[in-house]
């Protein structure tokens, strides 16, 4: 038996304009960037072998998708595992579909063609009709996305009865995507490569903060109404990234997800030796934390900006010049932070959280 959860009626009205307290951009950035959802997880993955018989080309900590080479034929596999449980809590169908989209995007920005998924469906007690409704909606969302994106489900598993004292975990249909890189030379990571490069944002920003980390951390709310996913826009972004990477235009790339543009740039700076100076140009300055899907940040040379603009226009994808790489500070609109402080927050926050009781 299934039943739409009662809690959905209570959380649909969550909105940053209705619930937002007074909070400056610098303070908001610090709260979001130090969150466990954002901070570096090296404390976890460094406990395991991540080199895969020395075949790992882009590994853990490089952001988004990883890449493992195939020595026998000069090709490589790009892999990514993703799920935003807040999205799935508010709308499991859309949230699950967006997990497929994001995992594919993370593979595409590495230069790979997304091919197929596996899934790990993590839910509470299915004897609860509301949990079973979440499960049904999430699997429908995965099916819808995979049909639209041509990424069949080739395997998977299910984990049920995940609850504590009768309270279920958020529905978490985790998606693992695999893609193929035809040539090892066509691989891009998320580290800024040089000073003076141009930083471009590909894709549209919708100014919707539903289920965002900003809404959770600043407004203390989890809720809102998610927009239906645009699978065509997602496929066009994948095509654009593969085209630009094959042409040798992209120096580094990262998708925009949790925390929005500001957090994506901060992560790129944290794993690099390079700062940024960015003026987003958003009408609402808070949009630097907005989490619209189907977006990516790329680093290119000044000479290659025209090529990116031309290819973006051909596919109908918006392309914005955000700023430049360089210096030893992270500057995004009103947010200013020395690079060393940024790195300290990023690499130490998660460790401090998980070892707090030791």
Summarize the entry for a quick read.
This protein is 35% helix and 22% strand. With 358 residues, the chain is an alpha+beta fold.
Gap between N and C termini: 44 Å
The largest beta-sheet arranges its strands as 10-12-9-13-11-14-15
Q: What is the CA-based Rg, rounded?
A: 20 Å
Specify the biggest β-sheet: 7 strands, mixed
How much helix is in the residues?
25-40%
Shape: globular
What sequence of helices (H) and strands (E) makes up the elements? HHHHEEEHHEHEEEEEHHEHEEHEEEH
Return the average pLDDT rounded to an integer.
92
Got a strand count? 15
Could you say which structural class the secondary elements and strand pairing correspond to?
alpha+beta
Number of helices: 12
Low-pLDDT segments: none
Strand content: 15-25%
Properties at a glance:
7-stranded mixed β-sheet; 358 residues; 12 helices; 22% strand; alpha+beta; 15 strands
Model description:
This protein has helices at 7-11, 16-19, 25-33, 42-45, 85-90, 92-108, 129-149, 213-217, 231-246, 260-270, 305-315, 339-354; strands at 56-58, 66-70, 75-82, 113-122, 153-159, 163-164, 167-168, 172-181, 198-202, 252-255, 276-278, 296-300, 319-325, 329-332, 335-338. A 7-stranded mixed sheet has the order 10-12-9-13-11-14-15. A 6-stranded mixed sheet has the order 1-2-3-8-4-5. Strands 6-7 form a two-stranded antiparallel sheet. Helix 6 packs parallel to helix 7 (129-149) and helix 10 (260-270) packs across helix 12. 35% of the residues lie in helices and 22% in strands. The model has no long low-confidence stretch (mean pLDDT 92). The chain has 358 residues and is of the alpha+beta class.
